[in-house]
Amino acid sequence: MAALRRGVFGFRSFRLSTFLLNSSRQKVVSRDRVPFLFRCNYSKLALGFGTGLCAVPFSKKSEDLTHEALIKRAVSLVTNSANTYLSQTTLALVDTLTEYTKALYTLISIQKRYVGLIGKLNPNEEDAIWQLVIRSRVEVNEKQEDCKRFESNWMNAVNLSERAAEAAYVAGADQASVFARSHLQMSQTQVEEARQLSLKAERMLAEVQADEIRRTAQQAETSESAAGLEEEIPDAYLRED
């Protein structure tokens, strides 16, 4: 009986020791849990108040998650967005300049045809060709307004790309900066080529219009001279009589 009592007492002592040990561990965990949660929430707060960057855990020991690396990553995203904006506005402006140039050549063709027929058309034919000229001029003006609107967007994109490239350079994202600048140069080259074609067409139209004015003036002088001769002929006959 004495041995049995000693066994029961030893078992109870073991259970009591185990319980006290587990209780002390739980208290330690509960005390350590509050600072750990605070540290996690503080990291999220520093990375953007629970927005997209909160999914990126910050650690000073990781080379990919240093402040410098995160800034480079962010500025690379900015340059990519700026390049996309520039590409879209460049395409819109180049297409619009091309359509404007086509409209100019259509007007040039119609006016050249009219200049060649000055003095040879009856009133109905002249009115019909002038209706074509008017419609063509309206289309040219509309395309020109489109060019101005898209050029404004393109200039904003150019300014944004220049700033993004500069920001990438300052942040040390050399590759993003170089790519942004090369993309900007290519865009400017494309727009300049399309613009030169439209300027050439504008000069040709100005020459045709000047030729039209000159031919119209000559035709008016010829008509006045012919009318003067017709008025002088009866007077000559009267003097002969």
Instruction: Report the radius of gyration as a whole number of Å.
Output: 43 Å
- What is the residue-mean pLDDT, rounded to a whole number? 77
Elements, N to C (H/E): HHHH
The count of helical stretches stands at 4
Helix content: over 70%
Structural class: mainly alpha
Beta-strand residue percentage = under 5%
- Distance N to C terminus: 178 Å
Let me know the number of strands.
0
Low-confidence stretches: 1-11, 23-61
Largest sheet: none
Q: How would you explain this protein's 3D organization?
A:
The chain has 241 residues and is mainly α. It is 88% helix and 0% strand. It has four helices and no strands. The longest helix has 67 residues, at 174-240. It starts with a helix and ends with a helix. Mean pLDDT is 77; it is low at 1-11 and 23-61.
What labels would you give this structure?
single chain; 241 residues
In short:
This protein has 4 helices and no strands. It has 241 residues and is mostly helical. Residues 1-11 and 23-61 have low confidence and may be disordered.
SSE map:
Layout: H1 2-46, H2 67-116, H3 123-171, H4 174-240
